[in-house]
Amino acid sequence: MKILLVSIKSIHFKRWTEQLEHSGHEVFYFDISGKVGTYNNMPWLSQKKSWKYRWDFPGRYYLKEYFPKTYNLIKPLNERHVDKVFEAYLKEINPDVVQSFVLYLSCTPILSIMCKYKNIAWIYSAWGNDLFYYKNIDSYKRDIMRVLPEIDYMFADCQRDIGIAKELGFQGEVLGVFPGGGGYNLSAYNPYVKSLPERNIILVKGYEQRFGKAIKVIEALIEIKEILTPYKVVVFGADDEFFDAYKLFKDNEFIEVKGVLKHSEVLKLMGESLIYIGNSFSDGMPNTLLEAIIMGAFPIQSNPGGATAEIINHGQNGLLIEDCEDVEMIKAFLIKALSDVELRENAFITNQNELKPQLEIGLITNQVLKAYNSIQYI
């Protein structure tokens, strides 16, 4: 089977795609952004990239930034249209299946083309905020309701989004619910999983941009700083919005803030952490939550639309923040997690012995490939 993947570049897309390396399928990649860049360590993946500009001339970024009117005059002449480039590539490789990752990024721009080629099966992979958030914005919802009836198959990272998709017009076949980046190489990370007595880090995801609410966690931590002396508080993945808000705080000298880290560094940090906190008002199944589970950190996680409750049983193997703006709730959960040793120990046992094995890369890959092999195509 020829599979054409349509997506922007991301670590999660790369990890998902790696599952297909030894699948026996021919795999192609159309970079929907059309910009410079490739996956150099994936020679088995045929890639269509760097197609957007007829001439990516020196000084283009400078011209766009400081002389936008001039840039907009030449833009129609210099930029290729995604639908035309995609259709040409579609004809060139003649795939059996097209798989689009994230609706508004990779489905909507090629909808008119896919409607012309009904003989090609179309898979949609829903990630993160894709449906849960954007269904509430009229312009996006219109696109969602135009796209979903045309989709033949669907993957998602949580059951919640399967239900939303069906409500908004999806009538195809569900291929399964899997982590957005596939499974995890547990044997590679097990050496970094420390025992509970060895852990003293409270780890916070520093995501404040658009959907994130990390600053609410910081507010809660500052209010209980007197009981945090035995612990090291670390924020990772802090974005610009986080830094802008964080610098206005006082009494935050006990917090260490890190920017973007390598994926392997995040996992090692998780393996040293007693508690992990992720807080946002919109998300799917957070990959960092899954990583906290496999690395043994006690998870405190927001629960937009009930997605997180699909894996966290509140008060048993973690705690669910139902209101991401409620600093008092976050503070109470932190105190609970720090003071209740039995809760942490039971959660560690449950997550390590029951949930973690379900996230193993070989198991997930086999399930994903079985789903691909079930696809009916002409």
TrEMBL record:
InterPro entries: Glyco_trans_1. It comes from the Bacteria. Keywords: Transferase. Gene3D superfamilies: Glycogen Phosphorylase B. Residues 216-346 form the Glycosyl transferase family domain. GO terms for molecular function: glycosyltransferase activity. The keyword Transferase applies. SUPFAM superfamilies: UDP-Glycosyltransferase/glycogen phosphorylase. PANTHER family: GLYCOSYLTRANSFERASE, SPORE COAT PROTEIN SA. This is Glycosyltransferase family 4 protein.
